[in-house]
UniProtKB/TrEMBL annotation:
Phylogenetic placement of the source organism: Bacteria, Pseudomonadati, Pseudomonadota, Gammaproteobacteria, Pseudomonadales
InterPro entries xref list: YebC-like (IPR029072)
UniProt organism field: Pseudomonas syringae pv. spinaceae
Protein origin, superkingdom: Bacteria
Name assigned to this protein: Nitroreductase family protein
SUPFAM superfamilies, per database record: YebC-like
Length: 34
C-alpha cells in the first residue's frame, strides 16, 4: 500500500469506513497500519 498518494489513501479510508460494519474490515485496517 506504500504506493498510494494521500488522496488515494483518503479514498480507501472512506471506503473502509463505509463498510465498517463488516467483520473483515478490522483485519484490513491492521494490514494498512502494518
Amino acid at each position: 500500500m506504500d504506493g498510494l498518494s494521500e488522496e488515494q489513501m483518503a479514498e480507501v479510508e472512506a471506503f473502509l469506513e463505509a463498510i465498517d460494519n463488516h467483520d473483515d474490515v478490522q483485519n484490513v485496517y491492521v494490514g494498512l497500519a502494518g
